[in-house]
Amino acid sequence: MNRLRYAVSLSYEVLDPMADFLLNIEAACTARQTVVSEQLTLPPGLDVDRYTDPVLANRLLRLRAPQGRLAIRYDAVVDIDHHLEDGDKLEEIPVAELPVEVLPYLAPSRYCESDRLMEFASREFGGMQRGYARVYAIREWVRNHVRFLSRSTNERTSAADTVVERTGVCRDFAHLMIALCRALSIPARMSSSLDYGADIRMGAPDFHAVVEIYLSHQWYLLDPSGISIPTGLLRIGTGRDAADIPFAAIFGQVRSDRPLVEIEPLTDAAAGIGMPVFTPKAISTW
Amino acid sequence: MNRLRYAVSLSYEVLDPMADFLLNIEAACTARQTVVSEQLTLPPGLDVDRYTDPVLANRLLRLRAPQGRLAIRYDAVVDIDHHLEDGDKLEEIPVAELPVEVLPYLAPSRYCESDRLMEFASREFGGMQRGYARVYAIREWVRNHVRFLSRSTNERTSAADTVVERTGVCRDFAHLMIALCRALSIPARMSSSLDYGADIRMGAPDFHAVVEIYLSHQWYLLDPSGISIPTGLLRIGTGRDAADIPFAAIFGQVRSDRPLVEIEPLTDAAAGIGMPVFTPKAISTW
Amino acid sequence: MNRLRYAVSLSYEVLDPMADFLLNIEAACTARQTVVSEQLTLPPGLDVDRYTDPVLANRLLRLRAPQGRLAIRYDAVVDIDHHLEDGDKLEEIPVAELPVEVLPYLAPSRYCESDRLMEFASREFGGMQRGYARVYAIREWVRNHVRFLSRSTNERTSAADTVVERTGVCRDFAHLMIALCRALSIPARMSSSLDYGADIRMGAPDFHAVVEIYLSHQWYLLDPSGISIPTGLLRIGTGRDAADIPFAAIFGQVRSDRPLVEIEPLTDAAAGIGMPVFTPKAISTW
Amino acid sequence: MNRLRYAVSLSYEVLDPMADFLLNIEAACTARQTVVSEQLTLPPGLDVDRYTDPVLANRLLRLRAPQGRLAIRYDAVVDIDHHLEDGDKLEEIPVAELPVEVLPYLAPSRYCESDRLMEFASREFGGMQRGYARVYAIREWVRNHVRFLSRSTNERTSAADTVVERTGVCRDFAHLMIALCRALSIPARMSSSLDYGADIRMGAPDFHAVVEIYLSHQWYLLDPSGISIPTGLLRIGTGRDAADIPFAAIFGQVRSDRPLVEIEPLTDAAAGIGMPVFTPKAISTW
């Protein structure tokens, strides 16, 4: 088990008389992820509408803020107890046997044009033995054929762009891996997290996009950008791609500062709580 | 009330040893749409897995077919009793008041890149009075700025392509209208139907894509292509865009014939069942 | 007549052992633009290969620089004596009568996908009376439907992107206007210049992309971004689009600083040299 | 030496009162390609304006046809005497040493977005030894990673699309190879020809797009689609990409039939004229 302290500070200036915010910043609560303590700090007098998705565990905050400064902070201590599995045991599930609620993760989505990548995916990975090994080969392909380059892409960049331009940040790596898996009829989706373990030379801690793949009737997590330590990934949101799980969807004219993110391990040898470490095993966080 | 006879015949040749099909061809059952009678004709011995979405009413058929010919036919008689409303009474709902289950229809999707159309939508429609009139103005804009041209687009064409190329078929009109509405924070989605009322000079009856817009806490239906008589629209599927509701998603090597679709009104003066006609009113089919 | 002082300082750090540069920064010499004096300052010992295009008047500098800092400065005093013409007199030339050397400016190019904009251009401008008025209407359409927004686009952005996203900088305005004109069989190309007259609140002086249109067997200049005073435009390069006339094409790993540009009018009342001013007339610089 | 009989029949119906045509269908005349005999058959009374590009040898026909049927036929007997060279001897020319007239073939163009493929080309081919072997490796990569599939693309498809979708016809193979070469600073352009040697199962003879690469101060020809016998390629047009050398650019409403193309070898053992055959050598047709 691992324990992480996570905090995020959001800072905005609302330019319109009112602006609406949909935030997805709180740690998800799942069978393998427990919020030990948490605190949401909002300006006094601001009402918040809360909603938690019963299937995906996304915790949505909806709020309406008046003109002026808006500062929001969320602090949490979270225990994660990822399930580790031997990759050799994990199998792709034929379409005929997929649960109905998994089928949407086969379809193309805003940033994952799997329909355009069928020929490519089939040529490159179609002949491989099915299972975790094939999924891992896709992850390796993406990691080895795309260069991590801050600010080389923007919020409109999709998997098709990344196949052409071969540069991007974590979400671009994730979108491309998701699109390739779906093109092979392997259900794939995105999880938003924090970049635990990322080299600090790459910049301050930040939100981080990773991939979930459905194998052996479980969702398994992979980071095709390779910048994080996956056992330290703390789930915030889950969706088809980045269009489903922005940390902040904003409606109205707003000036945004970059979010300030903190993530650190809290070890406690006596309680058997150590540091997240790399593992060759497949990781499931459900 | 209207009564329609609808039938579709699908014909495939499976080239692989096995192929999986996800079909969405059966008439939806809703408070305003009743299946009077229906029959699904499949090859003997073929198992079908059925699923009906509790919210969207999509009826999914999943089947696995062996190599060789596959013929599927669905026949139905369906009563539709669309709700007609005076457009003046319909209001856009602020994001702060939208039901949580409607929020996904604000996000961009595979074929509706609303994130790229924000400036355009805002310039063209941002200053208009909110409500059905604005939505109808968007519908008119799309109809007047895009040319209906068979085979000018393909299954990869998106709203962004249509803004540039200004030609397309019903699904392209629908994707563009959906994208423009979402860019203005108006929830919008696609419904698949039959092109009841389409000029037979445009070809045989076919599946038809139309738009649903969320106003005054109801989904209202519009056909931006203008080729159908909306009061005669029979709901088959409902989703974010065409990626969610293909009439057939096929996994495996399959040669497909064009589906043969039949749609005709069954009138019964004694029972008060007439022909679908054009109406200036807003139409809701829920 | 107007006289302008123009200077540009380029500053690079070559990271490879050697890097090649193709520069197009010197003022063109044409019948209506005379270089009064000029000076190119290069590091000692650096050889330069010079080439002037006999038709387009582009002056190309080719040089190979070793690892390390590279500073280049060009200073010039230039007289421009633009030809002003009453727009009413300018006619579009039918394809059958265009000089052969003008025909390439009808074809689509890297950033001007006129082939994708045929339907749009034809709908929007096809019915207008031909001539300068139509060209000016296209210029006005672009200026009124695109928002000038620094850093909203990049060097990969094309006219098709701008039709969708409706934001950009001068080159995006120019590419869109060029593409629309070509879609109507009006020859159009790009000229690189300096943004004389631009509001200093928009930033330091900079290179500036404008449009040339072939009318009445002359090339006429328009600035669809509207940020410059066209009578003050000093020609540097001329080509199909930005792909033909980068101020610097660089081959090798190089770190680039932003070019420092100076442009100012030199008035001399005694010699009849005043300030460039706005004119309702059509402007030709050949 | 080889001798080929080439003929093309074009058939149109002009719907407007008048339509303009720019045709590029006549065999080029170069040092290595001699027109033995030729005949252009036009409707009586139709004037033709002719132009031959002094550098590229493109022969342009410009004509204006009135409403109604328009039939054009061109017949030629052409001798080609391609230069064969040992690929090992061919070297890439550094940018610093390229003739000025070759520099435009380094820039991106409508269908060859080399600027977007820099990272990809550099990763895949950047480390290879420079020269014909690298160029041939790019040709092999394109041939092995793209599937030849009639009607899978259209006249708007570009190299960036082909990198994503991996299907296409000859012009798509050519555009991708050109873009990859330019991304590595190797001058590359397109030549239009006839698909001599193509398997008749792929359809009737047709125009064919191939690639020219500048090596050792010569242009060398490669067919990345692999469907032709390159020693039998008869040059029609030469340009940056397909935008420069359509066999017919049409201005006005016209209904077009598919061009009927004939190409066959004329052997004459006594004169030493045999059949074009495959060769492992590099081929130059200038």
From TrEMBL, chains A, B, C, D:
Pinpoint the Transglutaminase-like domain residues: 162-226
Q: Please give the superkingdom of this protein's source.
A: Bacteria
- SUPFAM superfamilies in the record, alphabetically? Cysteine proteinases
- What is an example of a Pfam family matching this protein? Transglut_core
Q: Which InterPro entries match?
A: Bact_transglu_N_2 (IPR048930), Papain-like_cys_pep_sf (IPR038765), Transglutaminase-like (IPR002931)
Q: What is this protein called?
A: Transglutaminase family protein
What is the native source organism of this protein?
Cupriavidus lacunae
Classification lineage: Bacteria, Pseudomonadati, Pseudomonadota, Betaproteobacteria, Burkholderiales
